[in-house]
Amino acid sequence: MVKIEIKHWQKSPEWRILIDYFFSLNLAVDCNAVLKALQPIFQEQGMTETVHNWEDHGYLVTYIKKNGSFANLRIHPHGLVLVDLQSYNDDMKGREEVDQLLNKVEERMKELFHSNIKRVKRLPAILRGGVIDRYWPTADGRLVEYDIDEVVYDEDSPFQNIKILHSKQFGNILILSGDVNLAESDLAYTQAIMGSGKEDYTGKEVLILGGGDGASNIDQMVIDGCKKHMRKTCGDVLDNLKGECYQVLIEDCIPVLKRYAKEGRMFDYVINDLTAVPISTSPEEDSTWEFLRLILDLSMKVLKQDGKYFTQGNCVNLTDALTLYEEQLSRLYCPVEFSKETVCVPSYMELWVFYTIWKKKTDI
Amino acid sequence: MVKIEIKHWQKSPEWRILIDYFFSLNLAVDCNAVLKALQPIFQEQGMTETVHNWEDHGYLVTYIKKNGSFANLRIHPHGLVLVDLQSYNDDMKGREEVDQLLNKVEERMKELFHSNIKRVKRLPAILRGGVIDRYWPTADGRLVEYDIDEVVYDEDSPFQNIKILHSKQFGNILILSGDVNLAESDLAYTQAIMGSGKEDYTGKEVLILGGGDGASNIDQMVIDGCKKHMRKTCGDVLDNLKGECYQVLIEDCIPVLKRYAKEGRMFDYVINDLTAVPISTSPEEDSTWEFLRLILDLSMKVLKQDGKYFTQGNCVNLTDALTLYEEQLSRLYCPVEFSKETVCVPSYMELWVFYTIWKKKTDI
């Protein structure tokens, strides 16, 4: 264990910025000529230079500034020049300096290569180590930055990490162990998992599994967070666990389903909002698939013959996982049929697949 | 001009990957102890080390591998440790090596700091210099990665760069000079700019400005690209510039509007799909605002007293630009009223504001 002096990192206003910048060229380059051309721009900034020459792989030049900032200049002989600049403190002055430096680099490169520059790309700064984390990758693994401006709630329950972060455009977003679950902007999700407005629920018996953002859930802390900070999605339904026409059970749904099945209690609708289809595509190695199938079987046992089962699937790009889920449906105790719908859930930044499953009509 | 040997970059299968990785700690750290702890992990990979010590700003350690890859290890005394690894060729083997290395770093950090690690974040790799560009920042400047898998069309017209890129989930996306304009998934955009299904267009006179993705536009090349590759959005409307009930004019809309105004030709609807509200918030410095107001004035001149003018605004987060746009509306030759609606356009990855504008009823 290293020697430490306790000091709270949250108190530090410092952020890390990484400016990612590259030039694609139509041609191979003389790495040394590029270095000589760009060198002065960094040296003017009072940066000290360290050059590594791979010969056949080109150059890496590191420029270091007294204030703790530094830049990498990577020159590839086959015609790719990369600059990334890491600086300290996200202040405007710092940003302007960075922009000026990069503008000079761009000018100089254009003087050198004119129309041979195929592409110049400057990406938005990536903020690292900030108190507010703006990066929540999609289910299909893409990097997306959210407009998060406030950490509303951040607690660890016995089951998961629970965050509620405020997005300027999406409102409060519930994030469970790093997965974006639901935002106040996501009425489209609720509509989709309730049958896209095609159902008449009056006088119907409905069983909802999961959905701690507004329904029953094993994790009391999700409910505590949501009933306080996600009222646009759950309204006052979580204030009382029992209402005139609903009851919220905070327990494992498996024994409950088994009890209902044993009692012969039947529902018109079962809405499974427990978990997305696992991303893993090897069911034998993944007990989540077992779990999914168990839930499906038990749900079918408590679903009326003409009832409907609604559930979310996964990101539309994860086709293997979706196919595997559909294979599970052919392995239930009773024959079922299904339809699916692809829906745009605003805060997901990817299209999401929802399933409707029903018992296959058998000719008598 | 540097000496060059012509060689087409496109032919090169090599991409650049940057893995961005950081640890936020609850405490200040002994930088040297962190270095000593992580050093062996990089050295095992046969990487050679260069250490820079700022004293009060901590360490930058650069590790260089024979194959052209390298890593930056940035250790901040106040409790932030950053690793970014840049490697060559996006092959699975390379990725596995990178993952193994980062896993070891994470294990070692956890041994060192146990529960004092406040956050560990590993971002998806950023691909740079690839033939396919997956990064198209939002109007409010956030970094978002698209699931682009094919460049369908990429041409420079006299007016702009025109790209049509294929996204796995959104279909073909039209990108004009770097701005995502419309994807095949974006029926929501078309519905919004036509009044969200609340209008009955039968027998009505409609004037559409812009919208080269399916209507009149000054840029023939946009139409050529779209009528071939965006048929899901424009259908066959662009195959013939004149149909039974429509005519497509490929010219500057200002003189056309002036001519219509002079002729006294009036429309039930004017749909302006020319350009988004400029992001600049200083109208006096920005002729685009002049242009916008000119279009608005001319449009009002050809709009029937009970007609409606539909247009897109901007990203909902750019509140200053939207406010300024609304101020322009109070400066037209005739008094107008407006309403606005925020819509989720799937391929935008941000919520978008649309306006309905009409002539103010004046009591006689």
From TrEMBL, chains A, B:
- Keywords of this protein's UniProt record, alphabetized? Polyamine biosynthesis, Transferase
Pfam families registered for this protein in UniProt: Spermine_synt_N (PF17284), Spermine_synth (PF01564), SpmSyn_N (PF17950)
| A single BP term in Gene Ontology | spermine biosynthetic process
| Active site residues per record | D273 (proton acceptor)
Domain PABS, chain residue ranges per copy: 134-359
Q: Which GO terms describe its molecular function?
A: spermine synthase activity
Query: Which InterPro entries has this protein been placed in?
Result: PABS, SAM-dependent_MTases_sf, Spermidine_synt_N, Spermidine_synt_N_sf, Spermine_synthase_animal, SpmSyn_N
Concerning its family, UniProt says: Belongs to the spermidine/spermine synthase family.
In its UniProt entry, what is this protein called? Spermine synthase
- Species whose genome carries this gene: Cyanistes caeruleus (Eurasian blue tit)
